Amino acid sequence: MSAYKYISKFWKERTQEFRQLRISRLVQWRREPSVIRIEHPTRIDRARALGFRRKKGFILARVRVPRGGRRKSRPRSGRRSRRMGVRRITPKKSRHWIAEERCSRRFPNLEVLNSYPVLEDGVHRWFEVILVDPNAPEIISDPKINWICDKSHRGRVFRGKTSAGRKGRGLHRRGKGTEHIRPSYDR
Fold this sequence. Notes:
Shape: globular
Number of helices: 6
Number of domains: 1
Order of helices and strands: HHEHEHEEHH
Structural class: alpha+beta
Radius of gyration: 19 Å
Helix content: 25-40%
Strand content: 15-25%
Largest sheet: 4 strands, antiparallel
Oligomer: single chain
CATH class: Alpha Beta
Strand order of the largest sheet: 1-2-4-3
């Protein structure tokens, strides 16, 4: 087995050693800002599988997103309790997609390539987002990734073009029963 297989096995099995590492990381990550740039991926196997490479032009960021439903301010009067509209208000996007969008707003000159979940506790979820600089000469000259330099990919995360966005739009399903999904992005 390659080293990446062992790393992915470590993340899937959740041994006692993993639990101790998780607790120590969560203690540290809760004190950090909600979007922070990081030097090395926490899950190198997932990052590599999703297109990350250790070269100039690739940037990683860790994003913290709150869990649970959204809350609305409670109306003063004029409604019965069922129609207050305070609970069970959920966003129409996944936490994954929201994390990518927040990261893209924090780094406006970069494009989101992909992202993956890292950890979660009862209050927050953490995702690591792979960002690419479309103006970097190393990216422009690389035939594997220079498609992202095209102007048609500008702001791709806000149009649901990343993997999390495509899943939220229902584009990961194909075949019979999906005829009425497309076009799948209208606000």
